[in-house]
Design a protein that fits this description.
The chain is 51% helix and 19% strand. With 342 residues, the protein is an alpha+beta fold.
Amino acid sequence: MVLDDRKMKILQAIIRNYLETGEPVGSRTISKYTDLNLSSATIRNEMADLEELGYILQPHTSAGRIPSDKGYRLYVDHMMADKEREVNEMKEMLLEKEEKMDRLLQQAARVLATNTNYAAMISAPQIFGNKLKFIQLTKVDAGQLLAVIVVEGNVIKNEMLTVEEELSDETVLKLNILLNTQLGGLSVNEISLGMISAMKQQAGIHSGIVGDIIDAVAAAIQSDEDLEIYTSGTNNIFRYPELADQRRASELITTFEEKQELTQIVQETLSDDGNTGIKVYIGDETPVQHMRDCSVVTATYELGEGMKGTIGIIGPKRMDYEKAVGSLKTVMTQLEEIYKKK
């Protein structure tokens, strides 16, 4: 039998309350615990139906109810289905958004290069100050757990964990509740040693799993993936005689093609906490060795949810700085406005 929404919400409330307290749950507690706005009498009738259907038990007369194995099974299946659907929807959304973002950044670099007649670069946004949204633990087999970790910006990480013994559905459920209750909405810096110790104590014999999951969460939040940098207008370098001799031009073109050195500019710009203004590097001030004959103008753009990237212009020292700064600001504004509409 498929439970209606009212019975399902009451069953979920009974299970969550029982997992938190370890005490049988009464109708009065449920009336305060749910958003159904039902009387205690109505809730008692629904609980009687759930008991008859085998989803909850009454350990002794006049006591509240506790979940049965059948109740746990329905709760776990329902919860996992919801989380799996949420993760799948996020993945589909992210794939679509990544494709749009890729095209958007390539176009932004082309516009900047065309408008200024200099070379342009723009880095894909990185997530800063990541906070955990939720963790979903799922049994894969007797010796493995899959931890799906979702952080701000809807970044999804999967981590396979090895366990020494098979965990029951109730144990996995308790671990899910413990982890999400304690860690949800926190950044790595906010997860203290005292908090970890308390969680391990609550997890008892499964403290090792909690430690492994916290390590996986830290890795997901602080992940340092390959930085994608889009460039355009490299051939504009040849417009300026001071940069167009064979050696200088070759070094600059190689820098733009291989892009590793461009990450120094991105990292230095983004490391200036709280700064989204314009930065100008002239000659030897430039962090890239092969750009010491150039000027580089950069800025940090923001797309919300802690997502930041660097946009920059590279040209000769006799660059039209006013035009370069104006073009940067225009493209940054357009980039942020277009992103918000997507």
